[in-house]
Amino acid sequence: MQYYTKRGDQGNTNIITGRTVRKDATRVEAYGTIDELNSLIGLIVSQVDGENLELKDELLMIQHFLFDCGTDLAVPDEKIPYKITEEEIKFLEQRIDYYTPIPVEVDKFIIPGGSPVASLMQLARAVTRRAERRIVTFINEEEKTNRQVQIFVNRLSDYFFALGRVVNHNEGIKEPLYERGGTVFHESFKTADKIIKKED
C-alpha cells in the first residue's frame, strides 16, 4: 500500500465513485470534519480509565458509526447503499436517555471543563456541532446524500454533552456553572486585587 499518490497535488480529490472534486468542496469539508471528530474520539478513548473504563467499547462503536457517516457523505446519488439509518439514531437517543438522570440536575449553563476526559467530551461536542454545520451547508447545495447522517450528528452532540456530565459525576468533580453577568470573574478579580495589594 502506497501512502501517497500525488493525485491531490493540484488541490483535487476523488470521491468513492471516482468523480474528481476540489478538496475544499462542501462535501469534502463535511466528511473531513467527521474524520477530525473521529480522531478526537480516538484520543478520548486512549484517556478513559478508572470509573469510566466501561465507556471505551461504546465510544469505539461511535467511531465505527462516524466512519459510516463519512462514507455516506462521500457517496453521490446513492451509488452504494447508505449505512446510517434510524437504528443508529435511536441507539444514540437511548444512550442519552440512560445518561441524563445520572448527574444532578442543574438549571444553569455548564461551562466546559471538569476532569480532563469530561473536558475532551465537551470539545467533541463542539467539533460535532461544527461537523453538523458543514453537513447542513453541503445539503443546502441540494446535493443528494443520506440525510439521516445530519440527524445522527445532531443527536451525537447531545450524546457528548450528556456523557461529559456523567464522566464528571463518576469522578466526583463538581461542574463549573455559568454565572450570569460574570459574577465569577468579578469575584476572582476582587480576590486577585486583594492578593496584589497585600504583596505590595
TrEMBL record:
Q: Which UniProt keywords apply?
A: ATP-binding, Cobalamin biosynthesis, Nucleotide-binding, Transferase
**UniProt-recorded name of the protein:** Corrinoid adenosyltransferase
**Organism field:** Carnobacterium alterfunditum
Q: Which Pfam families match?
A: Cob_adeno_trans
State if Zinc is listed as a keyword: no
Q: In which pathway does it act?
A: Cofactor biosynthesis; adenosylcobalamin biosynthesis; adenosylcobalamin from cob(II)yrinate a,c-diamide: step 2/7
| Subunit description | Homotrimer.
Q: Where is the Cobalamin adenosyltransferase-like domain?
A: 4-167
Q: Which SUPFAM superfamilies match?
A: Cobalamin adenosyltransferase-like
